[in-house]
Amino acid sequence: MSEPILRAQKLDAADELAGLRAKFVLDEVVYLDGNSLGALPAAVPARMEDVVRRQWGSLRIRSWDESGWWTAPERIGDRIAPLVGAAPGQIVVGDSTSVNVFKALVAAVRLAGEGRDEIVVDATTFPTDGYIAESAARMTGCTLRPATPAEVPDVVTGRTAAVLLNHVDYRTGRLHDLPGLTAAVHEAGAVVVWDLCHSAGALPVGLDEHGVDLAVGCTYKYLNGGPGSPAFLYVRRELQDRFDSPLPGWNSHTEPFGMRPAYEPAAGAVRGRVGTPDILSMLALEAALEVWEGVPIDAVRAKSLALTDFFLECVAAYVPEGAVESLTPVAHAERGSQVALHCPGAGDVMKRLIENGVVGDFRPPDVLRFGFTPLYVGFADVERAARILAGTLS
Amino acid sequence: MSEPILRAQKLDAADELAGLRAKFVLDEVVYLDGNSLGALPAAVPARMEDVVRRQWGSLRIRSWDESGWWTAPERIGDRIAPLVGAAPGQIVVGDSTSVNVFKALVAAVRLAGEGRDEIVVDATTFPTDGYIAESAARMTGCTLRPATPAEVPDVVTGRTAAVLLNHVDYRTGRLHDLPGLTAAVHEAGAVVVWDLCHSAGALPVGLDEHGVDLAVGCTYKYLNGGPGSPAFLYVRRELQDRFDSPLPGWNSHTEPFGMRPAYEPAAGAVRGRVGTPDILSMLALEAALEVWEGVPIDAVRAKSLALTDFFLECVAAYVPEGAVESLTPVAHAERGSQVALHCPGAGDVMKRLIENGVVGDFRPPDVLRFGFTPLYVGFADVERAARILAGTLS
């Protein structure tokens, strides 16, 4: 038996989170695409059946009160809160990430106040953040300034209203320095918006500790909420009273059933709502979040780093030198929970990998992307993935 | 046996749509709140089970292609299209109604072009439309002018950019003159946005026929899509190329997986998308729409009018004169699919009605609201509701 296989056995045997895998519906496939769509938590199907048949089918309209539908966005936000280092009452769930980026960025410009007319946006961002930032700039009379995260401390000035950054780069898996960049933005007197899509549920974020102003994130990656499950919006408590949403729907009114013609925003996280929330997706997410009960995010982070370390080791051991090149930083402080490999013909390579039971994804033009979800990926999976990758490339 | 009971029997016996009730999960309750949350179509639970267990649980990420998740927003839009008189390719499903009102209204102002800086909004609107219109006006440099639908032909001028109207008033059930008001807005050179929340699935709308520019609507009322199911957006084909969305998310990009930094909007209905759609809610809606197969909307309208006529008759027969007063117009051309009764102490009356198996809803300060969904409400239900109402009031 080869050395990596033995190592994997030892690592799995010592893995304190190994038992969590049983809380998911999985098969023999090595699923390394949880950074795109998380696997199905085993509690979800029965919950959805109850939501559909009993809550909707029998109780119908009464469920808005009796089944807790009305309060779900903040209740579920409070379940996400400890995973991203937020005290309760600051996160609301609903709408897509893109819509939440719009809310957060426009609100950030308004918080920054007069005389600041520039939005700095991560030049390496997942595209939707850039598109939405462009619209937010256009609609608030700002100019848009793209900058890499490393450049941010040098480009923020007294003109900067808001800075939109990604915590982990979707393509390379690079983890950016949230505490340092947040401090740099604040030093310039600007407001920071963090996109946590690729970090929420994968590593500690420390929103409150680091004084982050606003943040958004998706719930269908490391939080396993299901396809297109609603995103979340964090507004730091001290900013909530001044949070001025560009999407002031009736669900964010202080008295939504008062049907008043004048808008009066609710206090607290509720202010981040817009229209009627999509309850089916929302309650699937709530069931999915139960797997986190008693799971410390620090333990998740430790296992995530061990998994990506081990994957890079196995790739080095199995794959002929020069066939692939890691785009993911070696330093732990700069690594998210994925490994991106530059690989000629990556599109075809990923097809063959999937045919052979290893699911990652392909990002054009030539990147193989592998996500490692510590809740259900083990070290034997990692060894197997690297071994099959080597076979695919040879 | 009293006269209304006999009449109900005859009407039910002659009802060509009576068989559709079997396609819903219902019980002995008289459910007259389908204008708030439609009843559960019987096909939904099994479909959701398949979506959750097989599509998400087994196929996982592959379902974006293999289970048709990616194309769902337009495919489901095309199922709604015939119900609102739209040819295929003009409706996209996703986001909440409020978010779609924002997209439509900002896009309408941009379509109207330079020199027009006023948004006219229905002064009797469901509040969220007014709140969102205020935000759209603020962000496009327009002023907001409230006007009742009847006043619209007189207030639209060469300054008017866009007019936002409700097809059916949520409170009184009054149906507004969509063809006439659309023509009046067009005569002034402005763009019209119709909110179809209380008409889609209840009566013919004729979007194409009447040259409507933009429309939005919800799917959890007469379309029975489930709690908070995604809303829809209609953009008339001739306007699609100039539709300039304030929420240009990656899902509306011409090549979403190209991950290009510059936004290039897709052609067609896709342009109305924003972020990743909520697939669970979306596919529950798709299953729910199957009940419409072969059901002509004209037949639905004819039964709806017969139901509301009969309810008003029964109320007149059973309820002591002066105890309630209908706010819903007598003329068919001015009536939606609901009856609103002014009633002192309406909040308490509705509580007692619900305790006695008749579910409608209460709108402050003093309105009892009863919605009549022709797909599953019968004439015996109507008679019983009026009889129990009379008992509650005596």
From TrEMBL, chains A, B:
Pyridoxal 5'-phosphate binds at T97, S98, F126, P127, T128, D129, D195, H198, Y220, W250, T276. InterPro entries: DegT/StrS_aminotransferase, Kynureninase, PyrdxlP-dep_Trfase, PyrdxlP-dep_Trfase_major, PyrdxlP-dep_Trfase_small. Its EC number is 3.7.1.3. It catalyses: L-kynurenine + H2O = anthranilate + L-alanine + H(+); 3-hydroxy-L-kynurenine + H2O = 3-hydroxyanthranilate + L-alanine + H(+). Its cofactor is pyridoxal 5'-phosphate. Pathway: Cofactor biosynthesis; NAD(+) biosynthesis; quinolinate from L-kynurenine: step 2/3; Amino-acid degradation; L-kynurenine degradation; L-alanine and anthranilate from L-kynurenine: step 1/1. Signal peptide: none annotated. The modification N6-(pyridoxal phosphate)lysine is found at K221. It holds the Pfam family KYNU_C. Keywords: Hydrolase, Pyridine nucleotide biosynthesis, Pyridoxal phosphate. Catalyzes the cleavage of L-kynurenine (L-Kyn) and L-3-hydroxykynurenine (L-3OHKyn) into anthranilic acid (AA) and 3-hydroxyanthranilic acid (3-OHAA), respectively. Belongs to the kynureninase family. Homodimer. This is Kynureninase. It comes from Streptomyces lannensis. The gene is kynU.
